[in-house]
Amino acid sequence: MVRGASSSVKIGASSSAKLVIICISLLGFALIADFLYASSSSSSSSYSSSLWNSQPSSHSSTLVVPLNDKKKKKKRVLADAYADLDGPDLKWEKMATAPVPRLDGAAIQIQDQLFVFAGYGTIDYVHSHVDIYNFTDNTWGGRFDMPKEMAHSHLGMVTDGRYIYIVTGQYGPQCRGPTARTFVLDTVTKQWEDLPPLPVPRYAPATQLWRGRLHVMGGSKENRHTPGIEHWSLAVKDGKPLEKEWRTEIPIPRGGPHRSCIVIDDRLYVLGGQEGDFMAKPGSPIFKCSRRMEVVYTDVYMLDDDMKWKVLPPMPKPNSHIEFAWIVVNNSIVIVGGTTEKHPETKKMVLNGEVVQFNLNTLKWSVIGKLPFRVKTTLVGFWNGWLYFTSGQRDKGPDDPSPKKVIGEVWRTKLKLNDV
C-alpha cells in the first residue's frame, strides 16, 4: 500500500509538471499571437471601421517624429517621401457637400458637369449610383442608378466627351473580388450598354482612350495584391465596340493600381501608383481587409509614336490613389493629394496634402499649393479658372497624416500655374 501510494504521488507530480509546461507554452503562444494581431490591426487602420469617425480639419507643413532612444531629446525630420512638401498656401472655398461621402469612387468631367460614381460609403457599404455636380451653379443633382452587375470601387474610367467607358473593378465592400465586366454610359440619355469583358478581372487599372482605342493596363490581379503589367485595347466609337475581343498591347514597365493615366497631344502618360494593396483575410466570410506590404513610387512613363515606353522625370514624392485626382490645364498636368510611402515609425499609411504641377513644356515638377487637409482618392475637376476636389479620405489632423474620415465635401480654389 505504501509503495502504491508513493507511485501515485510520483505520477501525480509528473502530470502536474507536464500540465504547468503545457499551460506556460499556451500562454506564450497566445502572447505572440496577440502581438502579431495587434501589429496587423495597427497596420490595417486605414481600412478599419474607425475610419468613418469625424476628426478636426487642419494642416501642417512638416512632420517631426521623436527618436526612440533613452534620452528622448533628439528629433528627426522625416524624409521627403513621408513629410509634407513646401508650397504656397491657397485660399480654399467650401462649396455644397456631396449627397454621400465616397472613398475609392470615380469621377469624369464633361463640360460643366462632374459625374461621380460608386465608391465606399463605409468599409461595409458601397454606393451603386451616380451623382452629378454642376460647376456653373455649384449644386448637386441628377442622381441615377448604375447597373447591378457593375463594380463599386477601383474602377477604370474614361470619356470621349459624351460616352463614359467603365472597365472592371471591385464588386462589393471590404476586400471582395474583382469583376471583368465593362460598360458604357451615354451621358445624354443616361442609358447603359455592355462592352466585351476584359480578358481577366483587374483592380484600378490605368485606363484611357487613345487613337480610337480604349486602353486598359496595369492594376492589381485577382488577389488584389499582385501587380499586373498586362495591357489591352479595344476599338470603340460613339459608345460602341468595333471589335468582339480585346487586343494585347505592349506591357506597362511597372504594374500596379491607383495611377493617373492621361492623354495629351496624342501621347499617353501614366503617373505614380503602387505595387501591392490590401487583401481579403483568408477564410473571412465578409472578405475582411488585411494589409500587406505596399511600395508607392514616383514613376512617370510615356507611350510614344513607336509604341515604346519612355521614362520621364519622377514625381516630387511617391504618390498613389490618384486615378481621378488630376486635370490638364495649359499643357500641364495637375495632381491633387494622394498617398505616399507608409510612416517609418508607425507603419501607417501617409496621405499627401499637396497640389503638384508637371509642366510638359519644360518636363519639370513643382508644388503649386497646399490642400486644406491631406486626402487620398479625391475626385477633381476644373471650370472657369477654379480647381475643384470632392470626396476621398482625409487625414486625422495637422500632426497625423494617417487616414481617418471619408468625406463628401467640395472645395475649390483659383488655380495659378507655374511657368517653369
UniProtKB/TrEMBL annotation:
Which SUPFAM superfamilies is this protein grouped with? Answer: Kelch motif
Instruction: State the coiled-coil residue ranges.
Output: none
| InterPro entries xrefs | Kelch-typ_b-propeller (IPR015915), Kelch_repeat-containing (IPR053256)
Entry-linked Pfam families: Kelch_KLHDC2_KLHL20_DRC7 (PF24681)
What PANTHER family does the record point to? OS04G0487100 PROTEIN, PTHR46773
Protein's name according to its UniProt entry: Kelch repeat-containing protein
Can you name the source organism? Crotalaria pallida (Smooth rattlebox)
